Amino acid sequence: MKPIEEQQVQQTSTEEVSKSKNGRQRFEVKKWTAVAFWSWDIQIENCAICRNHLMEPCIECQPNSMNNGQEECIAAWGVCNHAFHLHCIKRWLKTRNACPLDNTEWTYQKFGS
């Protein structure tokens, strides 16, 4: 016997199936596979400097990845807990020693891929 919650879900989904003008069901869901998202333990998943996703190569590494996929583009976190591509934040720090997002003094917390 099915659990009560599963029976209720099946009844509800069967009742909500849209019907055509002649009273027949227009479609029936035979199988449904749910998909879940996951993310790193950071609030922003894009590098605020180059706007690329942190798990993708930065704008400096993109041309190199086509030719030589050996070098890895890693992310760097500051003590403010903001993350950027290492190449992007290094280039940023040449002109100003502050986090691009909150303008606090930049100090490296960790590096990772």
Automatic annotation (TrEMBL):
Q: Which segments show compositional bias classed as Low complexity?
A: 1-15
Is the keyword Transferase assigned to this protein? no
Ranges where the record places region Disordered: 1-24
- Family named by the database record: Belongs to the RING-box family.
Query: Which Pfam families would you find in this protein's record?
Result: zf-rbx1
Recite the UniProt keywords alphabetically: Cytoplasm, Ligase, Metal-binding, Nucleus, Ubl conjugation pathway, Zinc, Zinc-finger
| Any Gene Ontology CC annotation | Cul3-RING ubiquitin ligase complex
Q: In which pathway does it act?
A: Protein modification; protein ubiquitination
Q: Which superkingdom heads the taxonomic lineage of this protein's source?
A: Eukaryota
Q: Does the keyword Zinc-finger apply?
A: yes
Cellular compartments annotated: Cytoplasm; Nucleus
Which InterPro entries does UniProt cross-reference here? RING-box_E3_Ubiquitin_Ligase (IPR051031), Znf_RING (IPR001841), Znf_RING/FYVE/PHD (IPR013083), Znf_RING_H2 (IPR024766)
Span of domain RING-type:
47-103
Q: Which CDD domains match?
A: mRING-H2-C3H2C2D_RBX1
Q: What is this protein called?
A: Skp1 Cullin-F-box ubiquitin protein ligase (SCF) subunit
For molecular function, the Gene Ontology terms on record are:
ligase activity; zinc ion binding
GO BP term, pick one: proteolysis involved in protein catabolic process
